[in-house]
Amino acid sequence: MQGGRTGRARSLLAALAEAAEKCVSAGAGTVMRILLPLFTVFLALAAPVYADDRGIEDFPEGKGREETANMCAACHSGRLVSQQGMTRAQWDETLDVMTERHKMPKLEGGERGLILDYLATAFPPRGRRGTPNPFLK
């Protein structure tokens, strides 16, 4: 669904560029009368595309939600992050891996603590689904 919205935004942008080319020769007043409404419609339709990219709707309310969503969404969808379930120590290790291997900006001090607290609270380890395997006891 997200790809459909992105495609629609791109086609609207192409239509906007085409309209600009056609009316530039007609004069500035005509350009503004035609392009301003088109640009307004484009922004109204394209805004949800960019707002959804962060995927913050998958992050439950809580202290550190915005900071965590902004940091994680630079590379990941909110859905990918929200599907993980880890302890605070595991989240801490994951942040180290992201910094060392994937060049994520280093988080330190209060900001790191805030994000770790949020991740551990919002996305804790999940219980196993189904019945326990009796042979693993």
Describe this structure in words.
The chain has helices at residues 2-24, 28-54, 65-72, 78-82, 88-102, 109-122. The longest helix is centred in the N-terminal third of the chain and has 27 residues, at 28-54. The model has no long low-confidence stretch (mean pLDDT 77). The chain is elongated. The protein folds into two domains: 2-53; 56-122, Cytochrome Bc1 Complex, Chain D, domain 2, CATH 1.10.760. Helix 1 (2-24) runs antiparallel to helix 2 (28-54). By secondary structure, it is mainly alpha-helical. It starts with a helix and ends in a 15-residue tail after the last helix.
Defining traits:
137 residues; mainly alpha; Cytochrome Bc1 Complex, Chain D, domain 2; 6 helices; 0% strand
